[in-house]
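Mods, move this if it's the wrong board.
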Amino acid sequence: MSEPLYPTNPHYPTVPASTQSSETLERSFGASQRAGSTATRNSQFRLSEEGFFLAPDHKSIASIGSLTAKLEAYLSRADIKRVRAAYRLADEAHLGQFRQSGEPYVSHPIAVAEICAAWKLDVDSLMAALLHDTIEDSGISKEELSVRFGVSVAELVDGLSKLDKMEFQTRAHAQAESFRKMLLAMANDVRVILIKLADRLHNMRTLTAVSPQKARRIADETIEIYAPIANRLGLHSIFLELLDLSFRHSHPNRYKTLRKAVLSARGNRREVLSRIVDATQRVLPQWGVDAEVTGREKSLYGIYRKMREKRLSFSQVLDVYGFRIIVPTISDCYKSLGALHATFKPILGRFKDYIAIPK
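Not the wrong board. Structure tokens:
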């Protein structure tokens, strides 16, 4: 769940107190600055006016301020106060710890909590997301968490810690055992799985900081274990992102080549997807069909796997996108087919009628 930590980082020069307001330091460094700690920050990172850490590519790193802003959309003030209390303990627990990128380690649990907030998870889940590495990395006990934040939060954090301690003798055994333990955890509380997926998603988004060998191992594990679980839970956008991020790190050259080919052949994938859905939604009512139309991108990894398994070139892979049209009746289904054939050019030999000839 966590990366190897640096107890100190000599490349983090101390920021003079006169250069930053106390409010900015509170939001950006947390306990490190409040306590007057010697923990410092890497010179390759800078602070924005809003108090975010900015990496060299100017992408903001998660802060308690940005998390609070997201929570205000759906949590009460009392619940937000509880989340901030969990943050304060996480900030103190990870004081002096850094990610391999050089960022303060506490930015990771904040980012995990932000992902959970985007899914509108409950307050206990958000607190557990902030505290998910405290038992493992900081020696804080389950009992202490239970006293301070309640049994529910402590159980969630403990469940996450147990998942992170899984060890396997063979890769095949690891895959089967991981599925078994995760499904068992899901039976007790599905929130453990959701927080774990958020944790893995953020680690995958920031995987460039680790060595290529370690990145490939983590990517393979994500494809084999975490992406399928996201798919089983119906988290399709997370499933696709995990697959593409894993492909990017497991086969970087193939990823770059295929991504370039897809962009060259189809342009912006989401823009094309939206255009086709819009065109379909316009034409179906003209044929008297009331339908629900959805579309999705096929992941780059999915395209690559199909090319590899069926020994196809990219030009031979036809289903770069997937579309679904849901209609009330069988006759509406055939009407929709006529509308699509009148709007888009059919490909010879690629049409299958599973109504007349079931699989």
